[in-house]
Structures are given as structure tokens and as C-alpha cells.
Amino acid sequence: MAQRSILIVEKAGGPLHTVAHNLQQTGCQVYLASGTRDGLQHAMEYVPDVVVLSRSLAEVDTLDLCRSLLRNLGEDSTPAILIAPTGGDLSGIDDPAHDSRLAESLALDLLAQSVKTLTFRARQTADSQAVLECHGIRLDPRFSLVEMDGKRLDLTPTEYRLLQALLARPGHVLTRAQLEEAAGLPAKDREPEGDSEHASRTRRIDVHVKSIRGKLDRKGILIETVRGVGYRFREPAWNINSLN
């Protein structure tokens, strides 16, 4: 998955530098902007996944920046916009200074977690439209097209979604439950895993995988069965010719 990017917009010397450091430690690319004008310039240049707006900014400036982001970046590139939380009501606290710091710390932790969630979702959406290619098998979501060594493969919609899920994470094992979800099977149609009543039945996912393997011909061995778990697509470093 590509590196997540976050733009934090606040007044100079604001409290969100703590969040910036936290997110940088998790592998995010973080940009800091001082004020809304600087924030818009950064957004146009870097096109981040998420924009965090500090409450230290004037409300009118915040609204203007939101409108400018929506207008200038376009529907496909518009980041998620998050307003930084503030501390809660501290009335009745014996040591308000101490608890103010505690409330601020909790609020910043919540903000950091929210940013992580939003960027993960944004990347999932972007990844679902990425062209996937491995071992001469190419899947292009823009045209719902699958090719093997330059030749088009005729897959059903369910087979297409299963292959896309496997190609997106070569070398990683996906359980049948994960593949059922990726295939878009209705929950009521999914077979409970571990249910003895269904133990002797051929799982629907297994049938679809067998069909995909047949259409991949000699490259069907690239979809490996992991007993008792599910399936995985062989990583790029694996050499199919070694079995010839």
C-alpha cells in the first residue's frame, strides 16, 4: 500500500505538531501549513489523502478553505477533511490545568486515530482502481479487463473480483471469508466457516477458484491452496518455469 499523506493546517505554533509527529512515526507523509492560504497551496501541490483543520483557525477561514479544496481539487482528488477536536468540559475539576492537558492529549490521540482510519479507507479506494500485474497476468479495473500474456480472459464478475483480491496481495493468504466478501457474495449466502453441517459441502469459493485456475491454464498453479485457511497468489519472485 502506498504511503499515506496528511496535510495539517493550523496557526503557527499550534498544538497539532504532536499529531504530526505521531503520524510520521507510523509511516505517514505529513505536511504542515500555517494558515488557510498556505494550506490551499500545499493541498494543490501535494494532493493529500486527508486534510486536518485546526480549531485555532477562524471559522470563516476554515469554511473558505473547505470550499476551495472542493472547487480546485476536483471530485476524484478531494481529500477527506477532518476538523481537529478540542478538549471537553472541564467544569468542576479540582486541578483544571492538569486535566486540560489530559483532555487535550486524549483529543489529539482520537484525532490521530481518525486520520489513520480515513487514510486507510482512501488508499483502499485508490488501490481498488490500480492496474495489477503479476506473472504475465494483468487486471485493469478501469475497463474490467483481465489479460494473460496479452490475451484477454473471459471471467465472470465473481471470478474477476476474486482474482483482483488475490492479485492485489501476492504472497498473502486470504481466508474464504475474506474472499467471499471480496466477491460480493450476500452474507446470507455465505457458508459459515467451521460449521459441521457444511463440512462435506463444496464451498462456493472453492468452485470459483477452480474455474479461475482452469481459465489460467498452466498458470492456474499460481493460485495456491492453503489448507484449512484459504488461498494466496504466488509472489512475483516465484518462477513458474521451475515446474516445467
TrEMBL record:
Region annotated Disordered, chain positions: 183-202
The species is Blastopirellula marina
Q: What would be an example GO MF term here?
A: transcription cis-regulatory region binding
Entries under Pfam families matching the protein: Trans_reg_C (PF00486)
Residue ranges flagged as DNA-binding region:
129-235
Q: Which domain of life is it from?
A: Bacteria
Q: Which UniProt keywords apply?
A: DNA-binding, Phosphoprotein, Transcription, Transcription regulation, Two-component regulatory system
InterPro entries reported in the protein's UniProt record = CheY-like_superfamily, OmpR/PhoB-type_DNA-bd, Sig_transdc_resp-reg_C-effctor, WalR-like, WH-like_DNA-bd_sf
The UniProt entry's GO biological process terms, in alphabetical order, are: regulation of DNA-templated transcription
OmpR/PhoB-type domain sequence ranges: 129-235
Note the Gene3D superfamilies from the entry.
3.40.50.2300, Winged helix-like DNA-binding domain superfamily/Winged helix DNA-binding domain
* Start-end of Basic and acidic residues biased regions: 187-202
Q: Which GO terms describe its cellular component?
A: cytosol; protein-DNA complex
Protein name, per record: OmpR/PhoB-type domain-containing protein
